[in-house]
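ok new one. same drill as before - structure tokens go in, u give me an amino acid for every spot. 763 of them this time. try not to just spam alanines like last time pls lmao
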């Protein structure tokens, strides 16, 4: 996103950007009382607790009471301090910072400050002023206290922090004026300063002519055909994450979802922007580490009280800065190499450039830019790529993190979501048509972005004089447009703090800043609106649908409380630790005619037709024994019903050779040649291999793995009290060897089950 950008920017530092300082000024008693009572009524549960479950959306299944209490206390304290007038300044805008400066000079200065405030207090209408205090913002994300101040001071007020002063905008009409109607009067200000070291003059920080030229070059690269091509990239990347979660579910390990989402979106954006596979879900290589070092630095700079990176000698000797410089050098080198490779590809290809130009093998934005003949320096190209990498990475990761947090709190939303994913996706990787049908999933993302906007604040600086909300403002004003406040404003939203995807009708338009008249700004608005809005929406919808289709997600027992902090976007303070369990649906057990082959190799070709159903294996001790006696190989077949698209499980008992034979018949796209079977998984009972030579087993396994049998994801549980997963292990080709009993899941045998799921070959 502009996210980072915005984010970093967006997350102006409680310290460096806001400085420090203390105020002591008055709010008229009646106004203070009214504000306090409004706050009591409207007290926002802006904590990560996910709302109170009222309203159409969730059931509000509980948040941490200790956390809630701490939050309530903090807010009540702040509310009381605001009501006491502690934060209220009077007089013209320049007075408070100057008065604070004078007061620091000792008693004479204090006297001068008091006089100044008194004399200046009698002017015309002035922007309401609040004076920030460090103690009000420490220990929580900086945008949270701004919400209470907004309820007191209104849609525009000035916040003075020591010598610094900011205009805080929470009014949709003023936001529209700044972002859209008079956008040329505003630059990115502080944001550009903070991000210069990593984004240079990339699209997010750039202003003026550079921004105009680069935006005109980059926007066309994200055309409809490109975004459609990205859907399969989102699907594959999400599938990789599913595989990781499969393993965690099998191993019974909890997972930290925030970092996994960060990796998922890094993998996506690397391919999408410059065709580089970070594969960060699999490895932590140098370049992945370098990207994270750089991101952390951007966050640190946006929240640090002292800009140590600007101190002449220190910046050259500090180990931290050295590491950052090395990371940047590695990223730049990698980008230069990718640019060179791409240039060669463009020279060699004989595709004609046109509006919807796209190289199928490399649909990246970089490829489009080079093919378009974009006449730009390597440095500018690197700045643009780096900007999009950061913009498209952190925002999407944050959206997924908070969406899954909310889903864990609202199980009824989760159930609806899973229903939609089952119906629309079945076992397939999503297509663009599927994504359009995932309407409820899209509403969940829309609503998640309302409650947790990424970034929570947009930053601007006035470069001309202007009128905001009826108040004149001068040049050089630093402005924070609080998207958080706009999205939580109790006047605009019913149940503002409730996660309620139903507030957005399924058959209505996709909510955006235009149809919500700037009360909803998930992707900004006006000429600087996010260029990746459709990309990001599809990405998060695909990932969400694919994950919830396969897994249930709950907060892990003993997980640290989920609280917000600001980096480039809204982060959790201690991660999002979740327990992931595979969804086990009671299998529909058909009485299908299955071929059961005799145990002896001579009779391999002789097939006996007899009815075999899952129940015949799972329903009793005798039959289980029988299953093992046939040769120890149970093949699970997943049928895809042609008409309904529903999956049906059944099993057949086969001997080893038969199993291998079947595996060989699985084509590389996962379909068994003959019939409707789309995948298979083979489970073996180790003890039962005794009758087969090691050579035969080895050749069987290698033939399976060379066919890339798609049964890579296998869950097996063994009968309670037996060796369990300790004895189970994977072999080549995803075959699970387990010493225990294996049987098909069955509602009346919840402790006996196994399953596998369809994967396209090679995934
Ligand atoms: C859910 C994910 C995303 C969110 C919430 C998001 C949000 C935003 C917002 C709010 C802005 C406006 C910033 C401002 O006005 O200061 C923005 C700008 C931008 N975003 Fe995104 N973004 C997301 C994903 C992406 C992706 C995937 C890309 C690239 C592929 C991207 C590229 C950009 C760029 C280049 C800008 C700057 C546009 C300009 O200044 O002309 N964003 N984003």
């Amino acid at each position: 996103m502009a996210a980072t950008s915005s984010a970093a920017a967006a997350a102006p530092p409680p310290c460096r950007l806001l400085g420090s300082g203390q105020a002591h000024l008055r709010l008229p008693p009646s106004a203070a009382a009214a504000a306090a009572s409004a706050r009591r009524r409207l007290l926002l549960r802006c904590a990560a607790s996910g709302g109170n479950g009222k309203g159409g959306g969730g059931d509000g299944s509980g948040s941490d009471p200790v956390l809630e209490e701490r939050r309530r206390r903090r807010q009540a304290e702040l509310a009381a301090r605001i009501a006491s007038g502690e934060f209220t300044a009077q007089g013209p805008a320049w007075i408070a910072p100057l008065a604070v400066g004078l007061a620091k000079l000792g008693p004479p200065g204090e006297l001068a400050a008091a006089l100044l405030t008194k004399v200046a207090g009698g002017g015309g209408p002035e922007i309401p002023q609040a004076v920030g205090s460090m103690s009000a913002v420490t220990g929580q994300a900086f945008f949270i206290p701004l919400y209470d101040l907004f309820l007191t001071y209104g849609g525009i007020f000035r916040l003075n922090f020591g010598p610094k002063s900011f205009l805080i905008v929470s009014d949709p009409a003023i936001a529209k004026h700044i972002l859209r109607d008079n956008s040329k009067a505003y630059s990115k200000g502080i944001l550009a300063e903070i991000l210069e070291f990593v984004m240079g003059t990339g699209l997010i920080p750039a202003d003026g002519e550079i921004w105009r030229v680069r935006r005109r070059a980059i926007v066309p690269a994200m055309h409809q055909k490109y975004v459609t091509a990205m859907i399969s990239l989102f699907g594959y990347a999400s599938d990789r994450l599913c595989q990781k979660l499969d393993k965690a579910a099998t191993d019974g390990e909890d997972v930290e979802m925030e970092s996994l989402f960060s990796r998922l979106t890094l993998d996506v954006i690397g391919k999408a922007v410059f065709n580089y596979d970070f594969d960060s879900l699999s490895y932590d290589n140098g370049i992945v580490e370098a990207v994270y070092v750089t991101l952390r630095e951007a966050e640190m700079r946006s929240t640090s009280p002292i800009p140590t990176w600007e101190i002449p000698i220190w910046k050259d000797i500090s180990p931290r800065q050295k590491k950052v410089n090395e990371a940047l050098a590695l990223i730049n080198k990698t980008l230069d190499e990718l640019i060179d490779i791409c240039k060669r590809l463009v020279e060699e290809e004989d595709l004609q450039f046109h509006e919807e130009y796209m190289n199928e093998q490399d649909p990246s934005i970089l490829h489009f830019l080079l093919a378009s003949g974009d006449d730009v320096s390597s440095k500018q190209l690197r700045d643009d790529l780096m900007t999009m990498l950061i913009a498209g990475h952190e925002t999407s990761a944050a959206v997924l993190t908070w969406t899954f947090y909310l889903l864990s709190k609202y199980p009824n939303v989760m159930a609806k979501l899973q229903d939609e994913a089952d119906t629309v996706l079945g076992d397939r990787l999503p297509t663009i048509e599927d994504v359009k049908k995932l309407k409820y999933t899209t509403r969940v993302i829309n609503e998640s972005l309302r409650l947790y906007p990424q970034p929570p604040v947009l930053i601007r600086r006035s470069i001309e004089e202007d009128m905001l909300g009826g108040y004149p403002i001068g040049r050089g004003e630093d402005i924070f447009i609080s998207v958080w406040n706009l999205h939580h404003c109790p006047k605009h939203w019913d149940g503002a703090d409730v996660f309620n995807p139903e507030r957005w009708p399924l058959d209505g338009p996709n909510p955006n800043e235009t149809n919500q008249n700037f009360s909803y700004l998930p992707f900004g608005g006006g000429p600087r609106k996010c260029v990746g809005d459709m990309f990001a929406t599809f990405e998060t919808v695909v990932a969400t649908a694919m994950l919830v289709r396969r897994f249930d997600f709950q907060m892990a027992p003993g997980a640290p409380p989920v609280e917000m902090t600001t980096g480039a976007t809204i982060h959790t303070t201690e991660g999002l630790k979740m327990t992931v369990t595979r969804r086990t649906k009671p299998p529909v057990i058909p009485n299908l005619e299955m071929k059961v082959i005799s145990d002896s190799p001579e009779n391999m070709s002789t097939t006996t037709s007899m009815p075999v159903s899952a129940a015949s294996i799972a329903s009793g001790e005798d039959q289980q024994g029988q299953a093992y006696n046939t040769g120890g190989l149970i093949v699970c077949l997943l049928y895809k019903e042609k008409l309904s698209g529903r999956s049906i499980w059944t099993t057949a008992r086969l001997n080893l050779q038969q199993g291998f034979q079947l595996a060989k018949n699985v084509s590389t796209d996962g379909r068994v040649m003959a019939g409707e079977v789309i995948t298979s998984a083979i489970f073996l009972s180790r003890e039962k291999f005794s009758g087969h030579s090691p050579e035969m087993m080895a050749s069987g396994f290698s033939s399976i793995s060379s066919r890339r049998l798609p049964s890579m994801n296998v869950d097996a549980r063994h009968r309670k009290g037996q060796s369990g997963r300790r004895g189970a292990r994977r072999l080549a080709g995803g075959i699970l060897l387990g010493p225990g009993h294996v049987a098909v899941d069955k509602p009346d045998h919840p402790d006996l089950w196994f399953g596998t799921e369809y994967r396209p070959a090679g995934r």
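Confidence is low (pLDDT under 50) at residues 1-62, 585-660, 662-763. and btw The radius of gyration is 30 Å.
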